[in-house]
Amino acid sequence: MSTSEKMQVFYDGECCVCSAEISHYKKKDAKNSIDFVDICDSEFRAENYGVEDCDIHVNLHVKSGDGKMHRGIDAFIAIWENTPGFEKFARVMRYRIIYFFARCGYAVFVYIRPLLPRKSWRITKFFQRVIHAKWNFILRLVGKTPN
């Protein structure tokens, strides 16, 4: 399977919770059908993948093989649909009430994630990115153009 056909999962390699979950998915991906991209790697450039730097550091992103971008809970569903043993989770998540509560739970996680333990002392850079991303989001809501 070529890289262009592979699903790409963009994750925060410095987040202990995120890394643990991605590590689990890597073990389940026996066919090597998913390309896991650490957004905290010094070589990572969001623009090379067609995503905004301010947004990718806030939400989990998945780019499916057909090029469609999934964010947040939809990203998890895309991962689960393509990971052996997780297909049932994806189907259950499609029920409206479960999907609603999952989105609410993920929104809380996104809010508290900056407070979770990091793997290194690059915390300052991470917080700067999160604050910048949230500020740009607020500017977009009020119709202003972010810097």
Summarize the structure in short:
With 147 residues, the protein is of the alpha+beta class.
Can you characterise this structure?
- One of its GO terms (molecular function) is protein-disulfide reductase activity.
- This protein is α+β, with helices and mostly antiparallel strands and 147 residues long.
- It has one domain (7-141).
- 47% of the residues lie in helices and 11% in strands.
- The chain is built from six helices and four strands.
- The chain has helices at residues 16-28, 53-56, 73-81, 87-93, 96-112, 123-141; strands spanning 7-11, 34-38, 61-63, 69-71.
- Helix 3 (73-81) packs antiparallel against helix 4.
- The longest helix is centred in the last third of the chain and has 19 residues, at 123-141.
- The chain is globular, with a radius of gyration of 15 Å.
